[in-house]
Amino acid sequence: MTNDRELMLAFAGEILLGTDDDDNYPDWICDDCARSHGGRWPEGHVATFHEDTCGWCGESKDVTQPRDWGYPRAPEEAAHAAD
Ligand SMILES: [Zn+2]
Fold it and tell me: 56 alpha carbon to ligand 1 midpoint, in Å?
């Protein structure tokens, strides 16, 4: 049981750490949204795209994770900045 508990705690910690950066981000964003919000694809970076619903524009497109784009500024933040 001790091992299970340690695994659970490690897993919980991973989730907490992981969601820290991802709080304001959808799971997937498309190329167009990423670029239009200042996302930058690191040179030589490789990620897997697949077709899914973009968390920002809601269209079904080739999407990948926001972190692959260096966490571009989310639309909500952009809207606040424009206020
Ligand atoms: Zn999009």
Answer: 5
